[in-house]
Amino acid sequence: MLFLVAGCASSRAPVEYRVKPGGAPPAQYYVTAGDTLFKIAWRFGVDYRELATLNGIPQPYTIFPGQKLVFKASAPSKPQVAAAAKPTAKPASTPRVTPAAAVPSSTTPAFNGRWIWPSEGTVIRGYSGSLHKGIDIDGSRNDPIRAVAAGEVVYAGTGIAGYGRLLIIKHDDTYLSAYGHNESLVVAEGEKVSAGQLIARKGDSGTNRIKLHFEIRRKGKPVDPVSVLGKR
Prior knowledge:
Layout: E1 28-30, H1 37-44, H2 48-54, E2 68-70, E3 123-125, E4 135-138, E5 144-146, E6 151-157, E7 166-170, E8 175-180, E9 182-185, E10 192-193, E11 198-202, E12 211-218, E13 221-223, H3 225-229
Antiparallel strand pairs: 1-2, 3-4, 4-12, 5-11, 6-7, 6-10, 7-8, 8-12, 9-11, 12-13
C-alpha cells in the first residue's frame, strides 16, 4: 500500500524555491511540511514515478521537509578517451557470437477496466488543455461524488492551490484521477476504493460556485476526461 509521509519542517524553504502552483517544474525544489511526492508531481504536471526515480526515492515514496528534489537529470560529462595505439600486427580473428534476445522488462499494464462518471450534473466547462486541465460538473451542495474506477487514495487535502478540498486516486501505474472543490471528503489517504464508491460530497471549496472539477492524468499529463469516460 502506498502511504505517503511528510514530517514537520524546521524552517521554510529558500524564497527562490517557493514557486507558484501549476507552473513549470523548477530546476530544483525543496520539500515543505505537508508535501507528498504525489502532490508535488501533480502540482508540476510530471509523472510521480519519474520524479521518484530521478531522486532515488523508493516506495512508499516517503519524503521529508528540507529534502531537495530535482526535475531533470544532470547532463553526464564527456569521458576522456585516450587515442588507441596502432596495432603492429593483425589480431587473430575471433568467432562471431550471436547476442541473446533481450528479455522485455515486466511492467504493470495500463488500466483497461470500465470507467464510470464521477457525478450527476451538467458539464459546464470542458477540457481545453493547459488552459483547463479537466471538466467542471455542476450540481447541488453535498451531491455524491464517486470513484470513477477502483484504486487507492494517494492525496486528500487542501494543499494544492486552485483545487479546494481535493482527492487524488491512483488507478494503476498509468492513470490518476482528481476530484476538486469538495464540500467534504469521505475517504482518506491510503484507503483503497472500488468503482462507484462514495468518496466525497460536492461543494464550492476554493471556488465561487458549487461544482466538481474532475481531471484524469495519464503518466502525469492531463487528458480530456470525456475521452476516457465516454459520453453519458
